[in-house]
Amino acid sequence: MRQFFRDSDRQLSIRWQASLACGLLAVVGCSPNVTVDSAAKSLETMHQAAIRKPAKPNESEAVTPVISELVNSESAKRMNGKEPELQAALTIHSAALVVEDADTSVYRKVIAVCPQAFRDALQPWVERRRREGLEVAVIDSEPTAEDLKRSLAQSDTSRCNYVLLVGDSQPSPNGEASNPEQYIPTIYRAADVTAAYQETPQIPGDFSYGDFDGDGIVQAAVGRLPVKTSMQLTSIVNRIIAYEDSTDFGRWRSRVDLVAGIGGFGKMIDGAIEMVAGGIITSSLPGFVHTRITHASPTSDFHPGVKEFTSTVLNNYEDGARFWVYAGHGWVNELDRVPSNQFGRPVLAMDDMPRLNRPHGSSPIALMLACYTGAFDVNEDCLAERMLLSDGGPIAVLAGSRVTMPYGNASAAMGLIHAVYHRHSERLGDAWREALVEMATPASDNAELRSRRMMVDGIASLLGGGARIDNERREHMQLYNWLGDPTLRLSTEQDVQIDDFPDAVLGRPVTISGTSPIAGKLTVEMHRRLGTPAMAADKAANAYAAANETMLTSVEQNVNAGPWSCELTSADLSRVATSSSTPIIIKVSVNGKSTHAAGSRTAWLRSPSKPATVNETPSKTSAQPPQTR
After folding, report:
1. Quick one: which of 257, 218, 597, 284 has its CA closest to 419?
2. Would you tell me how many other CB atoms lie within 10 Å of the CB of residue 532?
3. Rounded mean pLDDT of the chain?
4. What's the whole-model pTM score?
5. Neighbours of 608 (CB within 10 A)
6. How far apart are CA 8 and CA 464, in angstroms?
7. Burial letters 449-486, b for 16+ CB under 10 A, else e
8. Architecture of domain 494-606
């Protein structure tokens, strides 16, 4: 019988798992220990610059209109006149990490821990990695985690930054031996920060197999392929090869699917949760990324309907995305229910696995910001394992093995996004290793990191976390584990340069020009920002689709590497209601034969009656992290 972990009613009321939801609840006065007055006062100095900063287009797609609804709601009006501070508290800050690029040439080794029974099935992967220039060492499993750590220590780890575990884990929280001919033991550590919410005193995790010197800073990223048979391993290896060799540079590569569960705290608070769940992700992404949100709250514009919710999630999954992100409640074998009660339908459950339907070459990478979904040590497969092992499932899954906390979730997601999209990590393990190093590093040790974490750390500190927020991040290094190959190659887009251009004017063409690093099909699109009002006619037809469809107009043409120019028309935008200026995003992509490129630039869309202004578009393309207003 599966060991089944389910939240108690008390835990459900405390821990909503969407990024910083609990922290935000404190800011808006829903924590019993923090008043709105004290929260706003503590944040006043931190956010003076944000309050005074003039409005301008935001290159990200942060769901900012929710903020206006919050500060204008009846509940917010009872907050002692602290609307400006609330506005500042809800501002998401982002900046580029200023560090020297690591010399990746010294990290060219992967150690694969693989039982003899799986060696033949792993061999195509071994040969592929060696052709790529990686040094591959394959060692046997051991009965206990301590034995395996000693075995890894006896290997040459001086140039190793990837550890691949090939095999499932047997439950052994008390150090019992597992069968090394089929299983790879995991490491158990006592819960600390999350101990009050854990139903088990120990947390399983693999990350410290990559901490060769035991200092808490990993040298290697660890991933696990939780296979039980050679056939399963052969299937995963074939899918990895198809994913890495894919030349499908369609829209899925620039999309992030975000599915948010319901908090159940009312319209205002659930709106705040929606903003954070969407904002913490979208504000960290480059402007060329398309974010699609599906929210379980029936008051949200991003809610497709109770009866259609799971089918919408599955249809969107089939439509494709580079990352598929879930933020909400989770258990070992299912995600939260819609509606959120015993009669609701799970957002995703074991029975839905056959309906995960993506080609192997365009599978998503899944991030499960939820409890228990990655409990890979229990007797039967957890949800994350079943997703990975499904033929049409994700190519890799990051999931929590026990109770996860909002601040730890946000830290993991932000670090990973930054490494993938702004540091352009070559492999999945490179991105996760950078995220782990960030999570282990106090903000006080790095000025840039302190700036980028200012908002999330500030809110967490208001909850009374103080120095414990560092411990919470470190504990989530143990809680979050990759089910997948840490050497998975990520197809990183090259940068398309976009020149400055005047305001776009309704009814008049606008010329967009720039420079492409590659030849291929050029697509230039004009978008409204996600979360700004959709066209009324579209919303009346399908509010959910209209909320997510932000494209206003587009053009396609073939280009050579080098300068390009095209003309966008806004003549068909008569339905756009703008009496002055509306922020827009120009998104550009070039799909070549063997690679792709992308870029974006913010701009203004104005009515013909408004005088032209100097374009406030940033001087750099979206390779630079988005700026918020």
Report:
1. 284
2. 16
3. 79
4. 0.82
5. 8
6. 23
7. bebbbbbbbbbbbbbebeebbbebbbbbbbbbbbbbbb
8. Sandwich (2.60)
